[in-house]
Write a structure and sequence with these properties.
The complex is a heterotrimer of chains A (335), B (270) and C (279). Chain A has a domain at 101-297: MetI-like fold, CATH 1.10.3720. In chain A, 76% of the residues lie in helices and 0% in strands. Chain A has 13 helices and no strands. Chain B is an alpha/beta fold. Chain B has a domain at 101-171. In chain B, 40% of the residues lie in helices and 26% in strands. Chain C has 279 residues and is mainly α. Chain C has a single domain (37-275), classed as MetI-like fold (Orthogonal Bundle). The chains are: A mainly alpha (335), B alpha/beta (270), C mainly alpha (279). Chains in contact: A-B, A-C, B-C. Chains A and C meet through helix 1, helix 6, helix 7, helix 11 and helix 12 of A and helix 3, helix 4, helix 7, helix 8 and helix 9 of C. Chain A: It is found in: Cell membrane. Chain A: Belongs to the binding-protein-dependent transport system permease family.
Chain lengths: 335, 270, 279
């Protein structure tokens, strides 16, 4: 019963947040420079044509009505048309999102892995040299701008050492046959091993960059929670009853520290979306982020606003899913 | 020599403000099958003494002198591996705030079974059955259902019963009960104390009962030791210590206790 | 209470002192160099300062960029802009967010809920993307950039103040003031704002660090400070293509400047939090 009411509240909260996001982006698009009326009616026009264009665009209607239209368009997948590509923004995004998703998912997986392992070890051996190094890496990782780190890893691993391929997008050579749009997955599905190797090589540096910058705050959080859990009464009691230390850490402490860390992962996902925009640009990665930056450079705003509103909604969805997973995993939320 | 024997234990703890002499010569003896109550106010070193017996002194602590002999073997000299075997199977412990001493994410039955498997190498299924039996032996109704529940579904008294089941799962020779009833309801306190006496006597083990509750110690322990400022100031048979205390600190402790319980009654213990 | 968890006292005293002194000194040096440095260096906008794309040398310690401008001059003068904008944006966010949050927390009820929802809506965006959207909408002028970064950070301060005020609401001294007939505003100003000053200072340091990162990020993607004005993020963008061909000095030095400044600010915040936290 309690669970159902929590579920209801959580979903209501999600809807309210999405509405809030939509209101903000609506206001932003209405204040964007480059009045759409003049775009439609042409620069040198009389008042009559301006009025006609205003009516045609529905800009003479009250704001709430305009808002409803705005949301309706979004729901129907009408995100406007890109001036730069002269394609509907939806189509542009549809062809680009797998590149971004592949990069982001891989980056978050790598980030979570190293953050948990290093954070846990640093918490278990707080006075070790390892913990100090972890401290340093954490501080640097939190402070380094990811777009700069991206250029530095290119300098080191491509320009100087020559062990990474040139930053020229998702793959050099022919991409694997399209099944899912994820090159690594498609390469495996079509057994195209050279394409798999080539796409993994291209993923190496951008994933490294994003994994370091998003993993650093996660590692610190993991370490903090782990330290807290290791000091808790049930760990002490477990030790007093002779449970081996490795088992205490892995079986008893880690799951308890993991719960709050997953919330952190959801938060970092939002950060990752922002970071991906810039890292994609540096690596000429043909994803949604590079699309947004290229559109900005061309003063083409419809695609940018679409990316902004969609990423906010994706972020809220990830947050919702995290909370729901908590609900299922944590026995204390069940009755 | 069997049972627990602590001889002249001296422990220093390093703090930012300099070393603190936390234990300054503790001597205790618990013959097999007997209960010793260790009383004193907080900060007197009771719990640190318990940590020493468990081989779990804090990192900042150094042992300056003394021995902690459990059935003749010095715990302070045991290797990590030996300590792990000793804990749980020779000496076990329960603590205050029992719900918090159980892992919130693991079913209570599994937490008991875990110890049976670790210390006795019992197969999973048999350990699970034994865990339910243990819960039943601790007076928990519907043990099968309770074993599948999580700690937050337990009341304080029930959680302490489960913790006791865990501690006694591998028949230790010595149980350390560190403030086991603190924070529980008064009626539950008496039940838990009675259960400890009953189960430990049945197993023939001995108990180090750490408490600030003089009455509780007097009720269940043959012998009492009084700690003050890192040293045992007095120990002996319970009746003797309570009726004819030799140390002034013991006397003041008894006085304050009696006064707190009933300010009008003359202090007959004198 | 058992004394079972006898832990060594938290490491404070001398250790804590260097933890705040070192980053504070570092930040002071960065600020001083940005402030005074330009008087001793060549004009950061002078396209004839040196041979384009020549590397670090005695004459140009940080090298020369593709337009012939001196990179050292530009890094130093960019420090002025970045620090100034970050500082003012954070100050605005603090000055606007703290009273708003304190008010919401103290009043409770519909006000609290309403303000909280607005704050949450802003926080529902990935920060960088929200900043992108707002910058586009307002147009990328310097005051607008400050406004954007301030707006993005206001919800943080609101929540901070709100969560600090709620437990204080029922505190004795506040109740006493209320009994004495003080107005809500007076109580918030006299009793509640001073109480959250400490947390706010730590947050301020973090916000400044964030502001520098966001500002540089916006400039990097081309909607922040624009060429030829020197700014760390836009300088990195300017050098990005040259990293592949080995002219590293264009991007590396401004990036190091961001890294060191942000690192110092973050460390100050961490130390401040530890300093003020319960022992």
């Amino acid at each position: 019963m309690r669970m159902a009411s929590y579920l209801g509240r959580r979903l209501a909260y999600f809807v309210v947040s999405v509405l809030g996001v939509l209101v903000i982006t609506f206001v932003l698009t209405r204040t964007l420079p480059g009045n759409p009326v003049y775009l439609l009616a042409g620069p040198l026009t009389d008042q009559e044509k301006v009025d006609a264009a205003t009516r045609e665009l529905g800009l003479d209607r009250p704001l709430p009505a305009q808002f409803v239209t705005y949301v309706g368009d979004l729901v129907h997948g009408d995100l406007g048309t890109s001036l730069r590509t002269s394609q509907p923004v939806v189509d542009d995004l549809a062809s680009r999102w797998p590149a971004t998703a592949e990069l982001a998912i891989l980056a978050i997986l790598v980030a979570v892995t190293w953050a948990l392992v290093v954070g846990t070890l640093a918490a278990v051996f707080p006075r070790s040299v390892f913990a100090r190094v972890a401290d340093l890496v954490g501080s640097l990782g939190v402070s380094v701008p990811e777009f700069w780190l991206a250029t530095v890893v290119i300098l080191v691993f491509f320009t100087s050492l020559g062990i990474a391929p040139a930053p020229i997008g998702r793959i050099s050579g022919t991409p694997p046959g399209t099944v899912t749009g994820f090159y690594t997955v498609d390469a495996v599905l079509t057994a195209d091993w050279s394409a798999l190797r080539a796409s993994l090589a291209q993923l190496l540096l951008p994933v490294l960059t994003l994994a370091l910058t998003t993993g650093a705050p996660m590692m610190r959080t993991a370490r903090e929670f782990m330290t807290g859990v290791l000091g808790s009464p049930y760990i002490r009691a477990g030790r007093a009853l002779g449970i081996p230390p490795a088992r205490l850490v892995v079986r008893h402490a880690l799951p308890n520290a993991l719960l709050p860390v997953t919330t952190m992962v959801a938060t970092m996902f939002g950060y990752l979306l922002g970071g991906t925009v810039m890292v994609e640009f540096v690596f000429a990665w043909p994803g949604v982020g590079k699309y947004a930056v290229d559109s900005i450079t061309a003063s083409d705003y419809a695609p940018v606003m679409a990316v902004v509103v969609l990423s906010a909604i994706v972020y809220l969805l990830v947050y919702l899913v995290t909370d729901l997973v908590h609900l299922v995993v944590d026995p204390r939320s069940r009755i | 020599m069997s049972g627990l024997l602590i001889e002249d234990l001296r422990v220093t703890i390093g703090t930012a403000a300099g070393p603190v002499h936390a234990l300054r010569g503790v001597d205790l003896a618990i013959p097999p099958g007997t209960f010793l109550g260790l009383v004193g106010e907080s900060g007197s070193g009771k719990s640190l003494t318990a940590s020493a017996v468990l081989g779990m002194l804090p990192e900042a602590a150094t042992v300056d002198a003394g021995r902690v002999l459990l059935d003749g073997a010095d715990i302070l000299k045991a290797s990590r591996r030996e300590l792990r075997r000793i804990r749980g199977s020779q000496v076990a412990a329960i603590f205050q705030n029992p719900v918090a001493t159980l892992n919130p994410l693991i079913r209570v039955g599994d937490q008991i079974a875990e110890l049976i498997r670790i210390h006795r190498g019992a197969p999973r299924r048999r350990a699970a059955v034994e865990a339910v039996d243990l819960l039943a032996a601790m007076g928990i109704a519907e043990p099968r259902r309770r074993a599948r529940q999580y700690p937050h579904q337990y009341s304080g008294g029930m959680a302490q019963r489960a913790a006791l089941a865990r501690a006694l799962a591998c028949s230790p020779r010595l149980l350390i009960a560190d403030e086991p009833t603190t924070g529980l309801d008064a009626t539950v306190q008496a039940e838990v104390l009675a259960l400890i006496v009953d189960r430990v006597r049945a197993a023939g083990a001995s108990v180090l009962l750490i408490t600030h509750d003089l009455a509780a110690a007097a009720q269940v322990c043959e012998r009492v030791a009084v700690m003050h400022d890192g040293a045992v100031v007095e120990q002996g048979p319970t009746a003797q210590v309570l009726t004819a205390p030799r140390d002034p600190y013991t006397r003041s402790l008894i006085d304050s206790y009696v006064l707190a319980v009933d300010g009008d009654t003359p202090v007959e213990a004198r | 209470m058992t004394a079972l968890d006898v832990r060594p006292a938290a490491r404070r005293g001398p250790v804590a002192r260097w933890r705040i002194l070192v980053p504070a000194a570092g930040l002071a040096v960065i600020a001083l160099v940005s402030l005074v440095g330009p008087f001793f260096l060549v004009d950061p906008l002078d396209v004839g300062a040196g041979e384009p794309l020549s590397g670090p040398s005695g004459a140009h310690l940080f090298g020369v960029d593709q337009y012939g401008m001196d990179v050292l001059s530009r890094v130093v003068s960019a420090g002025r802009i970045d620090l100034l904008l970050a500082l003012s944006a954070s100050a605005i966010a603090l000055v606007a967010g703290i009273p708003l949050g304190a008010f919401a927390g103290y009043r409770g009820g519909a006000w609290d809920q309403g303000l909280l929802r607005v704050a949450e809506s802003f926080q529902a965006f990935p920060t960088m993307l929200l900043a992108m959207g707002v910058t586009l909408a307002l147009g990328p002028s310097l005051p607008n950039l400050v406004a954007v970064i301030a707006v993005v950070n206001i919800p943080l301060y609101m929540r901070l103040a709100r969560s600090a005020v709620i437990p204080l609401r029922e505190a004795d001294f506040v109740l006493a003031a209320r009994c004495a007939g003080r107005s809500t505003f007076q109580i918030v100003r006299q009793h509640i704002v001073p109480n959250i000053a400490q947390v706010a200072i730590a947050q301020f340091s973090v916000t400044c660090a964030w502001a520098i990162q966001v500002l540089a990020g916006l400039s990097f993607i081309g909607i922040g400070v624009r060429m030829p004005t020197a700014e760390w993020g836009s300088m990195i963008r300017q050098g990005t293509d040259h990293m592949v061909t080995g002219q590293w000095w264009l991007s590396v030095f401004p990036g190091l400047a961001i890294l060191l400044t942000v690192l110092a600010l973050n460390q100050i915040a961490a130390a401040a939090r530890r300093w003020g936290g319960p022992s």
